Structures are given as C-alpha cells and as structure tokens.
Amino acid sequence: MTSRSQRRLGRSILLHLFLTPLALIWLFPLWMMVVFSTMPDNGIFSPGIELLPHDNFLENFNNLQRDTNFVGAIGISVSVAVTYTFLSVLLTSMAGWALARYEFLGKGIVVAIIFGTITLPYAVVLIPQFIMVARDFQLANTWVALIVPPLFNSLGVLFMRQAFSMMPAELFDAARVEGVKEWRIFLFIALPLARPMLAALAIILFLASWNNYLWPLLINSQPGAMTAPVALGTLIGLTKVSWGGIMAGAVMLTVPMLVVFVLLQRHFIAGIAAGAVK
Amino acid sequence: MRHRNATAYRFLTPYLLIFAIFWVWPIISSFLISFQATRTVPWRFAPTFNWGRLIGDPAFFNALKNTLLILVIQVPVMISLAIVMAVLLNSPLLKARGLYRFAFFAPVVVGEVAYSAVFRLMFSLDFGIINKLLNGVGLPKVDWFSNVTPAMALIMIAVTWRWAGYNAIIILAGLQSIPEDVYEAATLDRVSKVKQFFHITLPLLKPVIVFCAVLSIIGTMQLFTEPFLITERGGPGGGTETLGLLLYRQGFRSLNFGYASAVAYTMAGLAIAITLVQLWLTRDPK
C-alpha cells in the first residue's frame, strides 16, 4: 500500500514539475502585455530586463489616444459586437430549431450545405463580398457592413440544432394540442429552455466579432469607422508611434475578455467544445 | 417530427437569405472573376489570364511553399501539444486545476492584433525580452525579423501559442466522454498508463483529433494577420509571405480581383484536398 501511494505521489510531483513551467511560458506573453502597457517607451526600449509592472499606464493610454481615436474605435467595436451577437443568436437558433424539430422538403440539402461550408476557406468569398458590399451596396465604412455579412455561421446552427433536438418532444406537443402557434412555442418554450446553450453561443459570437480583424480591416478603413483591433493594427509598424500606447490598447482589448472568460469559463468551454461533439 | 414545409422555411429564411447573398453568390462570383482580366474597364473574359499567370508566378510559389511549410510543421506540433495539455489537465493527480486551465486556455480570448503586437515587441532584436533572456543564459541573440528561418519559427511559435489551448479544450471534452470503466478494466489487467494512452485513449480520441486537425489546416491555410503584423507584411523579403497575404496584396493593394480570386480558389482547393486526404487516411478500417 505504501509503495503504491508513494508511486502516486511521485507521479503527481512529476506532473506538476512538467506542467508548471509550461503554464508559466504560456502566461508569459499575457503578463508581458500588461508589463509593457505600464512602462514608458524609453523603458520598453532599454537594455535591462523588466518583468514587473510600472505605473505609466495612463500616460501610455493618452499617447495611444493621441496616435488614434481609440476610445471611439472601442465604442464602435462594442456596439457592433452587441448587435451582431443578438442578431446572430436569433438567426442561428431559428435555423437550428427548424432543422431539429421539423421534417421538410430539402432538409438533407440544407444540412449538407451547412456542413460543407465548415471546410470551405473564408478566402473564397472575401473578394466578391468586398466588391458587393463596397461597390454594389455602397456600404463601406458603415455598421451594416461590419454586422451583416458575418451573420452566416455554420457551427452555431449545428450547435443549436443539437440543443433543440435533445429536448423531449412532449414539451412542445402539449402546447400544440392547446393550439399555441409554432413561433410562440419557439420563442416562449424552446428558447428559455436552451438558455445555457444560448449563453455559450452568445459568448463565442461576441468574442468572434470583438476580435474580427480581416473583414473590418478591408471594409471599414476610414479612420472614423474603424473597429478597435483595426485602429490598433494601423499603429503597428509605424516608426513614430508609442509602443507603450499600443500595449495599453492591447490590454484594453484583452483584459475585459479575460475577465469574462474567468467568470463564464463553463459557457466558454462548452461553446468551443461543442464544435467537436456532434 | 411533423412535416411542415412552410413553418420550417419561415424559421430558416433569414439565415438562408444571408447565406445566399453573402456566401452562395460570392462562391460562384469568385469563380467567374478568376477567369476575367480585372484591371481593364470594363472587365473582360480571359480564361487563361489569371490562371496562366498563377502557374508561372514565383511570388505564388513562394507563398504556397511558405504556407505548406507552416502547415506541415506547425499543425502537428500544436495538435501534439494540445493532446499533452488535455491529457495532463484531465489527470486526477493535478492540484490547482483551475490555474493551469486558465494558463493554457486564456490565449483563446486574445485577439490577433493584440497578441501580434506583444510578440513583435517580445522578439525584437535589441530590446526584446526573449533575446535578453537568451543572452542572460549565455545564448546568442537571434535576429527574429531579418532572417527567414527564425522569422518562420516566430510565426509558428505565435500561432501555436494562440491555438494550442483552443484545441486542448476540444480534446479535453473528447477525453471526458470516454467512459471511466474502460480504464478501470485496463488497470485491473495491469496495463501500464503509457500503454493505456496509446491503445485506449488515442484510438478513442481519433475523431476529435481529426476534427481539430481539419479546422487547424483550414485556419493555417488562410494565415494572414501574423505575417501581416508580426513579420511586417511577410518579411524579410517575402520570406514569411503566405497565400492569405498574397491574396490581400493582389486583391486589396493592387486591386487585382481576378488574380486574387484565382489565389483564393487555389487555397480552397488545397484545403478541401488536404481535408479529404486526412479523412481518408484516418477512416475506420472496417
């Protein structure tokens, strides 16, 4: 017995000896992001090794605001992400509901198409999307351009289809017998029951919109219409720019998401893991 | 389930409408544009104009080579690391599990621009913390941005940091769906933990690992932000230019939509081909 528990202890120590340095390496870039954001530029570009935060965050933030209107860009990012999340959750759960609870003509085709687009690179639609939105619709540098084209997502629909098909049919049949309309059944019975899944989906969609870079970079390139990542990206690589400021911007983009992640970890992980569990 | 065409399509219409406008039409349109000369007004049909150029374009082959190189090195390294992370995070011996999970999963929420900026600063030649630490332990500085090999390594390190935890989350969910009694039986039969991993865990995880690999390949195939921001538009001298970056340069800097569409279709073709090969290689032997 003693030798077995000793072996267990040995294995446990080995496990922690391996995992702790790996965890520290993994945290290092995030830690350095915070450290850089609190250092003056002449501190970032000095030969010494600095691993602890300083107290220059506010000045860095002011430098960032001088280089680009970051607060305005954050405002656009927040509004777009909130609107996008709401609309996308609604659209994908409606589609997921239809696929989970009804038999209809062409269902097989719709499902096949949705699965098919998972393996299709976004690059294929990028150029026509840009031509259409910018030239044909004249919508470049508007919120609509940021919100509407990314509304199509396949993993979300499959996730919601899964969520709705796991619910017992009797729930809805009882309401149908009473003569409740289908859209009311969806809105007032199914959606409230799917709340944990909706939360997971909403978090993933919000994050995707908040961090989206390529499409906003292309379609909203006017200074007043940029999202926060795009505005920050324009500074990277310029010569006369405050790197402390860029890091302050990076912290403002990242830390709120980290807080949300810690608070809602279960939903986050459920949303990401859902992709694989079919 | 009941047969209700009208009701079903009422629920599906908004979604399918967005799909038709922003995906179906662009997929067709992109294909058509790739057969047109787009730098004349109006565009004219010239079937070999872009595709002919693609076949003989050294910039295309350079980007293709770089993309495939990142693909064959970075994806296997990252997936292996993700498996190790997931298996160890799942160990009942682990204390302070929450802290370790945070460390590995946190990069999942970090945006491409924010982490590109940090990596650029951390790896800079004279004042980057990485070179300072290398010097500190007696190793020479590495010029991460002026030489092709370190620049490629940097891109792969950055992408691996960002995505390993994401894949570990998916693999961990797969691990937790393996019933406990399989392992109990194996332990009773005195099968070692290492053997259990290779003969029970890995085979049962295969579908999840394939899923991760497919998503990672499609993601890496389109790699854009990291070489755009970290190595400064695919530098040094195109050494880290990817297909995604070539598409951006041709489509949105030179406004050569026809050629960029041909590049996009090449990426899609490659992604689909690699995915099919992957599915075929890992198919059930039955």
TrEMBL record, chain A:
Keywords: Cell inner membrane, Cell membrane, Membrane, Transmembrane, Transmembrane helix, Transport. Its main location: membrane. SUPFAM superfamilies: MetI-like. InterPro entries: MetI-like, MetI-like_sf. GO terms for biological process: transmembrane transport. It is a multi-pass membrane protein. GO terms for cellular component: plasma membrane. Residues 74-264 form the ABC transmembrane type-1 domain. It comes from the Bacteria. It is found in: Cell inner membrane; Cell membrane. The chain crosses the membrane at residues 12-32, 70-97, 109-131, 143-164, 185-208, 241-264. Pfam families: BPD_transp_1. PANTHER family: ABC TRANSPORTER PERMEASE PROTEIN MG189-RELATED-RELATED, SN-GLYCEROL-3-PHOSPHATE TRANSPORT SYSTEM PERMEASE PROTEIN UGPE. The complex is composed of two ATP-binding proteins (UgpC), two transmembrane proteins (UgpA and UgpE) and a solute-binding protein (UgpB). Part of the ABC transporter complex UgpBAEC involved in sn-glycerol-3-phosphate (G3P) import. Probably responsible for the translocation of the substrate across the membrane. Belongs to the binding-protein-dependent transport system permease family. This is sn-glycerol-3-phosphate transport system permease protein UgpE. The lineage of its organism: Bacteria, Pseudomonadati, Pseudomonadota, Alphaproteobacteria, Hyphomicrobiales.
From TrEMBL, chain B:
Residues 64-278 form the ABC transmembrane type-1 domain. One of its GO terms (biological process) is transmembrane transport. It comes from the Bacteria. It comes from Mesorhizobium tamadayense. PROSITE patterns: ABC_TM1 (PS50928). This is Sugar ABC transporter permease. The keyword Isomerase does not apply. Its main location: membrane. Belongs to the binding-protein-dependent transport system permease family. The chain crosses the membrane at residues 12-35, 68-90, 102-124, 144-164, 204-224, 257-281. One of its GO terms (cellular component) is plasma membrane. It holds the Pfam family BPD_transp_1. It is a multi-pass membrane protein.
